[in-house]
Amino acid sequence: MTSSVEAGVVGARRVRARGEALLDPGSGEWSRAQEVAIPLVPTPLDRQPSAYVQVAWADRPRGDIREVGVAALVNAGTLAVRLAWSAARPNRFISDVNVHPDACAVLFPANGSGFEYDSMGSPSRPVNGWHWRAGTEEPFAITATGIGTVARATEHDVKAAARWSDGVWQVVLARALAAEGVPLSHDMTVPVAFAIWSGAAGERAGLKSYSPRPHELRID
Amino acid sequence: MASTQSPQHQFAMVFDLNKCLGCQTCTVACKTQWTRGTGMEAMWWNIVNTMPGRGTPRDAFELGGGYRDGEPVPGRLPGRADWGEAWDFDYDEAFSPSSESSYLRPREHDGSAPRWGPNWDEDVGGGTYPNSYFFYLPLLCMNCTKPACLEACPRDSIYRREEDGIILVDEERCHGYRFCLEACPYKRIYFNEQRAIAQKCISCYPRLEAGVAPACVRQCPGRVRHVGHLDDPDSHIHKLVKKWKVALPLRPDFEVEPNVFYIPPTMPTAFDENGEFDEEASRIPLKDLRKWFGPGVDHALATIEAEREKVAGGGQSELMDLLISRNWQELLGPYTEDPGELPTPRRQ
């Protein structure tokens, strides 16, 4: 493990808080978490799985958001990850045909190891994620086996809560440790990656900012 | 992203612009059949615009999309102000008027008077009196052979049916990214804001599968619409497109190879400065017709004119018989089943 990776490690401190408190981005419980600044970069244009997108975005700025603050907490049964990023002009919902919502996601290797985060997984190494989209009450639990293959689970246990104030989004994504999806438990470390979509910049699908290397999430 | 295989047959339509009344019966037939669901209030999968005009959405053909020299052309995503909203109407005021000037007043969702809508510039047209002109242009999904929408979707949510080449959106796969709306040069894909998915004309495929013509075709009182398979040499479609070459693609410069074809509008000759017919001049500028329908328009108009003359002189013309379609069921190609004779489908 390199020191740079160490610097990007997110620790999920164990707390006694109720699940509702973990899910509240403004809860005082979050003052007990250590927020880690994760640098983000635009997704490579040549990986966009559509010739149209590659041409249409060749001269457009991509990857509007260049840093996300990540914190995590865990109680007896639930892991919560809070993402925070600056958004001076938030797109809080799909308010028009030509408005794209802000969004964020946390991505894991579906089996807990062998993380092909850069290609959104592969058939032998799928990825599992939690995807929040502004204006949508329920987050999506996703799996993917490659770019352009994201599938949403019809039933899942992922929850989300978001708030925007003073130019900053704070979004908490949480899941019961024992629920379906990436295996999670106390006293384990799981690889993780992050992505942010800036709706105001027209970002959606593969057009986003993402953490260009895997990080570690250490669950107490 | 997806490749497009050649289908077994190619479903296609021909619209005779010399017969279109602009009555929007097709538009309402489609609305009644398909777009009454959640988030579909402002959708008009079929629309009839006045040409020349700005279209639906506003400046539809100027928003990019399609291809140029085989390369995708970036498109702009029109907003609700360009598409037009589903208006509310003050029925109480109309039925119990407070003054003699009361009328059934349309209102946008914020209560303001509408400033744009589908076919907003109806009958405005072009030219200068006495050489003013317009014609009606029905529009729906063109089921393109080179569908820019399908190729733009990063999720393979749009596919081309193997049996008949109809282009459909898989609503389960669609995540509402709207690249397809940008890429369609005809802007015939709508976005359902409530469901966050793209939706468009489905060519009434459930009707086709029961042998019934699309609602817009069957209900057209002007006998404007022919349907069938482009690859069937006995079909009206094949004869009008391939044999007589009088049915032309709209804006072929978009390079998407649409499978809806148009009989271009013929018009009375222009007036000269003395108010006399100028037999050499076209009331609709030929350069505009060539832009809309491609270089084949000169041949098409000359052929129609010659065949009309032939019939006017007492002769026979297969082309005129095709265009007139005295037996309206001939318009329907293989889809002649009467929906009234079929068992009522169970609503899901």
Protein architecture, described:
Helix content of chain A is 7%, strand content 37%. With 220 residues, chain A is mainly beta. Chain A has a single domain (3-219), classed as Immunoglobulin-like. In chain A, strand 4 and strand 5 form a beta hairpin. Chain A is globular and about 50 Å long. Chain A starts with a helix and ends with a strand. Residues 1-5 of chain A have low confidence and may be disordered. Chain B is α+β, with helices and mostly antiparallel strands and 348 residues long. Chain B has a single domain, classed as Alpha-Beta Plaits, CATH 3.30.70. Chain B has 11 helices and 16 strands. Chain B has helices spanning 25-34, 80-83, 91-95, 148-152, 179-183, 205-209, 215-218, 236-243, 286-293, 297-312, 318-324, and strands spanning 11-16, 47-51, 67-68, 71-72, 88-89, 106-107, 135-139, 158-160, 167-169, 189-192, 197-200, 225-229, 248-249, 260-263, 269-271, 277-282. The longest helix of chain B has 16 residues, at 297-312. Chain B is globular. The two termini of chain B are 32 Å apart. Chain A binds chain B through residues 48-53, 55-56, 94, 96-100, 136, 147-148, 150, 204-206, and chain B through 1, 71-75, 77-80, 83, 148, 151-156, 175-179, 181-183, 191, 193, 196.
Short description:
The complex is a heterodimer of chains A (220) and B (348). Chain A contains 3 helices and 14 strands.
Descriptive key words:
heterodimer; A: 220 residues; mainly beta; Immunoglobulin-like; disordered N terminus; B: 348 residues; alpha+beta; Alpha-Beta Plaits; two-stranded antiparallel sheet; 22% helix; globular
CATH topology of chain A: Immunoglobulin-like
In the CATH hierarchy, the third-tier topology of chain B is known as Alpha-Beta Plaits
Q: Enumerate the strands of the largest sheet of chain B in spatial order, edge to edge or round the barrel.
A: 12-1-14-13
Hey, roughly how much beta strand do the residues of chain A contain? 35-45%
Inertia-based shape of chain B: globular
Q: Helices and strands of chain B, in N-to-C order?
A: EHEEEHEHEEHEEHEEHHEHEEEEHHH
Output mean pLDDT of chain A: 95
Classify the beta-strand content of chain B into a percent band.
Answer: 15-25%
Number of helices of chain B: 11
Q: How many structural units, i.e. domains of chain A?
A: 1
Number of domains of chain B: 1
Q: Percent of residues of chain B in helical segments?
A: 10-25%
Oligomer: heterodimer
Characterize the overall form of chain A.
globular
Q: How far apart lie the N and C ends of chain A?
A: 19 Å
Largest interface: A-B, 21 and 29 residues
Number of helical elements of chain A: 3
CATH architecture of chain A: Sandwich
Q: What distance separates the N and C termini of chain B?
A: 32 Å
